[in-house]
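Sample intake sheet
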Amino acid sequence: MQKDLGNYRKSYEKSALTEGTISANPMELFQKWFYEVEASEGVDEPNAMTVSTVGLDGFPKNRVVLLKKYTYEGFIFYTNYESEKGKAIAQNPKVCISFFWPNMERQVIIKGNAEKIAENLSDGYFESRPLGSKLGAIVSDQSSVIPDREFLEEKLKDLEKSYENKEVERPLYWGGFIVKPVSIEFWQGRPNRLHDRIRYSLQPDFDWKIERLAP
């Protein structure tokens, strides 16, 4: 089986990224871009991002998760710490996260170090989740092999009964990671594949070095 995709073509012409219009801090530019994507209403989940880790088997793996908060310090998402992703981060905290917003012809690539956030912050976010999401975090031994879908649904039914009229507390194996960036690259599509690429690199004095990369 084969399919030739060589004729897929698109001309990127919606915007430009120039040194004269960017902030000294990349988080300010990220916020600006994120707001513009939200306002465009052209992406269902603008906070969807790809998280790349190096697994225990030595292979890199990508998966899409949802960004739940960003600050000057970094990018926060939540997961099961005992999942494949969580174990990979525990072994090698160097990760890459990326956003692709096709309607704006933009992507952002972030290299950074992931670490667990404070337990009280994970508690606060868990408490804000809908009941179904709370129970889902407990039901799923994420990344483990299960016999079938029915196994999961029956397990959920049993859990719903056991938590009737009870407060659902955050399990200790579930919580947040913050990715503290050391490099953030902003990519803006341009005509003739001469795309704009601006990279911010964190320096020892915690200032950001700004460089333009060839497309």
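Comment: The first helix runs from residue 26 to 40. Strands lie at 48-54, 60-66, 69-70, 75-80, 94-101, 106-116, 174-188, 196-202, 208-212.
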